[in-house]
Input
Amino acid sequence: MGIKIPVVELFGNTIQGEGALVGTPAVFVRVFGCNLNCRGFGMPKGELSNEADEIIASPEFAAAKELKDLPLAKTGCDSYPAIHPACMRFCKMYTPDELADEILKASNFKPRLVVFTGGEPLLRQKDLAEVISVLYNTYHFHDFMFETNGTLGWNQHWLTENAPHDFNLWFSISPKLSTSGNPRTLAINRDAVHSLLETSPDKTYLKFVADENTPVDEIVNTVAHFQFGTVYTIPVYLMPEGGVLDERSRKNAQYVADLCWKLGYRFSPREHLTVYGNAWAK
Ligand code: SF4
Output
């Protein structure tokens, strides 16, 4: 039996709400598995969230039949079903050919932007490269994006073996800062970012989620760490933190827009929230 790719969510009929391709109709594929565990998000400095463990120990979790039955987490990793082993039961397993077929169906049989997210989808890059090859060679899809934490490089070999490299391969890198609770030695990998830039020099960018508690110096230092002389210029996006639209999120968006003005970065909205609200599969 061939390799199977564990997929937590797969859905179309939506838009890419963030980053450089905001507003683009897209199919999302959330792949299970991550090499980090961001338990620090939303927590007081130095503390780690147990919210995902508490959800998993709850009767609600035991009774949940599908992903949409699970509560959203307010602290820690907001994609916890994509990283917690107990959530593997919500995954569907696909061979690369099967996954390409499911993406084709979710795209309503038209070539669309395909966003691989997670978890950390680059953990599965060899298998996903096969999916890309099928979608490109057989179904004429041209636009692919990996939403990655920036800790893993891209092995260009996977694609050049299977497809001519004249499609658009995007890397949206969201480096995890100290607020994530991960040690910097694990979360920040200059060689990995260099590899992604080498693969797609004009389609790779950094994206940081920010609010008033975000250490701005750390963002600036991390961006500087990812400069590679004059060879590559990497665009930087700041995106307001927040899963609901309210007065607080509006103020935070203004704060982040001011930061972008001061630092010369770009502002990323979260348009899927405006359009769909905060929910699984949107
Ligand atoms: S890198 Fe992303 S998916 Fe992985 S633990 Fe952190 S927030 Fe969750």
About this structure: The chain has one domain: 5-205.
